[in-house]
Amino acid sequence: MKGLGAFIKTTVLGGILIILPAAILVIVFSWIYRFAIGLIHPFTMVLISQSNLPKFTADVVVIFLIVMACFLVGLFVKTKAGGLIYHSFEQRVLKAAPGYSLAKDIVAQLLGKKTSPFSSVVLVRLFGSDTLATGFIMDTHPDGIYSIFLPTAPNPTSGFIYHIKSEDVHPINVGVEDAMRSIISCGAGSEKLITAYHNQTKEKEITAS
C-alpha cells in the first residue's frame, strides 16, 4: 500500500512539473497578447470604422503597420542625414523628458543591443575581511573601482551598492540564473558559485607560478 501511495505521489508530482511550467508559459503569453492588443485598440477601432474589417484582421493589420513604421524609421536613421536629425532631436528634446534614458536602456537590454548589468556574477570581499558576498558588476571606473550590487535574500530586487577595489572583486564563471537561484533560496545551492571561485583561484595561482 505504501509503495502504491509513493508511486501515485511521485507520478502526480511528475505530471505537475510538466504541466505547471507549460501552463504558466501560456498564461504569460496570453497576458502579453492582451496587453499588446489593448495598446493598439484605438488604432484598431479607427481601422474597423473605416474598413469594416473583422477585429482580429484589423489587429493583424495594425501590428503589421506598426512593424513597417519601425522598419522605415530604422531605415531612415541608418542614413547619414537621418542619423544626424535623430541625434539632434534626442539630445535637445527626448533626453530632457524624465525617464527617457532609463526607458531607452531597458528597451536596449531587452532587444540585446546593450549588455545587461546583471550579466557578470562576482564574489566580493567586504571591508578587507575573508567574507565573500554574491553580487553583480553594475559599472566599472577608470581608477579600477567596481560598482557592485549586492542583492538581499530572498528578494533580489532590493540590496546595497558598494564601490570596491578590483583586487577584492572576483568574477566567476556561473550563470546569472544560478546566482539568482542561490539568492532567492537564501544561500541554498551555492555550491556552483563556491566551486567556480575555488577553481578559478587555483588556475590563477598555477598561472602565476
Write a brief structural summary.
With 209 residues, this protein is α+β, with helices and mostly antiparallel strands. It contains 6 helices and 5 strands. It folds into 2 domains: 63 residues; 92 residues, SH3 type barrels (Roll).
Averaging pLDDT over every residue, what do you get? 84
The shape, in one word, is flat
Instruction: Round the Cα radius of gyration to an integer and report it.
Output: 25 Å
Point out poorly predicted stretches. Answer: none
What letter string, H or E per element, gives the SSE order?
A: HHHHEEEEEHH
Biggest sheet, in brief? 5 strands, antiparallel
Number of domains: 2
- CATH hierarchy class name of the largest domain: Mainly Beta
Cα separation of the termini: 63 Å
- Number of H/I helices: 6
**Major sheet strand order:** 4-3-2-1-5
Question: How many strand units?
Answer: 5
Give the second-level CATH assignment, the architecture of the largest domain: Roll
How is this fold's topology laid out?
Layout: H1 2-51, H2 55-78, H3 80-92, H4 100-110, E1 121-125, E2 132-140, E3 145-151, E4 159-165, E5 169-171, H5 176-184, H6 191-208
